[in-house]
Amino acid sequence: METKRFKKAVSAEAFVFLIFLAIIFGGIGMKMGGANMMQTMMATAYELLIDTVFNIMAIAVIAGALSGALSEFGVIALLNKAITPLMKPLYNLPGAASVGIMTTYLSDNPAILGLAEDRNFRRYFKKFQLPALTNLGTAFGMGLIVTTFMLGINAPGENLGMAVLIGNIAAIIGSIVSVRIMTTFTKKEYGTESYCIEEENGESADDILNKREIRNGGVGGRLLEALLDGGKNGVEVGMAIIPGVLVICTIVMMLTNGPSADGTYTGAAYEGVALLPWIGEKLEFILKPLFGFTSASAVAVPITALGAAGAAIGLVPEMVSAGTAHANDIAVFTAMCMCWSGYLSTHVGMMSALKVPHLTGKAIISHTIGGLCAGVAANLIFQLVSMVL
Fold first, then answer.
1. CA-CA distance, 361 to 358, in Å (whole number)?
2. What is the pLDDT of residue 26?
3. Mean pLDDT in residue range 9-19
4. Taking the model in full, what pTM does it have?
5. CA nearest neighbour of 64 among 116, 101, 109, 106
6. Among the four 285, 361, 379, 383, which has the fewest Cβ within 10 Å?
């Protein structure tokens, strides 16, 4: 049980916080107009709830149902045995984590939470490993969508196939960096010995790893019950991420996007002050050598990916057609959009769903470094392959 903490009813932090709010929202309000700012904030939150949260919940329900069936009939146990020799040296995670990679690559970041709710999945993880699932799942979230979208861009004379492949490889490198950094934090929190499923009823640690609990009844009944229980876990996950997605993603979107198409503010959803892209342009002298961007405007793609990968990849076709992005940029875009995939808008909710909200800051720091490493790796690998070919 956590110890309660107390402070004086009125302290300096109350005034500091008020000043901070006045600077942030006062600045946005001066740019957009106070009424437009409030309308955009509410409209963006509503659109995120309808278009994003319910979509994530649907993904989590299907992923949870699938994971329930996979665990009930021993597929996760099989993968744990077969892939641990690969996952252990790369990620310091059990082989069962590979199921999370597959589900998030085919869908989105929170799909891994449906797995994490399943007892037969959690049993393979030590306590320090479970929070790192947020970083692992996010690094592969929307992977298939990002990959197919980039491959479908019309870029005559550009070898996009090689660029996208390099981007996927770089995203894997970024995921390893992110998970490894995260587990250095969680080891200090939980140690390295305790499993998520504690030894109980005479069950030893060996039993936890080499036996699995199954439901009563015949095969058909077990399958149906596993699917429904897994889907129910997905609903709970979807509800748990609502506050994080609505609050964090609304702020990120307003700091990332600009005014409407005609340059005015109307109070519509997803308008903003474009602060993050502006910061990116000021840091071009650092970012261009690291990522090899053809144009300073390319910085907007990974910065937008902080909040939403879908919005980020939507910027790419216009850049390619305008000649401000080429195959080398596509490799970096693929790596960073896939590795980051809107982690600022999902990490809070995902860590809360895993019941470790106090580690959210460490997860974000780890994943920020991992995504940057993915982008640098994509640039370096692309340059090396281009020299060889």
1. 7
2. 93
3. 91
4. 0.72
5. 116
6. 285
Question: Is the Cβ–Cβ distance between 32 and 24 less than 8 Å?
Answer: no
pLDDT tens digit sequence for 343-383: 877 787 788 888 888 899 999 999 999 999 999 999 999 99
Instruction: Give the residue extent of every domain in the chain.
Output: 36-388
Q: Where are the alpha helices (DSSP H) in 241-359?
A: 242-256, 275-282, 284-291, 300-305, 309-313, 316-322, 327-340, 343-353
The residue among 92, 94, 64 whose CA lies nearest residue 77 is: 94
Q: Length of the chain, please? A: 389
The C-alpha atoms of residue 269 and residue 228 are separated, in whole angstroms, by: 35
Contact between 300 and 277 under an 8 Å Cβ cutoff? The reply is yes
Helix (H, G, I), strand (E, B) or coil at 218: coil
DSSP E strand boundaries for the chain: none
Task: Compute φ and ψ for 233, nearest 5 degrees.
Answer: -60, -40
Under 8 Å CB-to-CB from 220, ≥6 apart: which residues? none
Whether the CB-CB separation of 245 and 52 falls below 8 Å is answered with: yes
Residue range 76-134, pLDDT digits in tens: 777 767 777 888 899 999 888 888 888 788 777 777 877 787 777 888 888 999 999 99
For residues 383 and 328, is the Cβ–Cβ distance under 8 A?
yes
Instruction: Give the angle 115-119-124 at the CA atoms, nearest 5°.
Output: 80
The predicted-structure confidence for 221-234, as pLDDT tens digits, reads as follows: 989 988 888 888 77
Question: 203 pLDDT band (50/70/90 cuts)?
Answer: low
Best CA proximity match to 337, nearest among 192, 153, 189, 213: 153
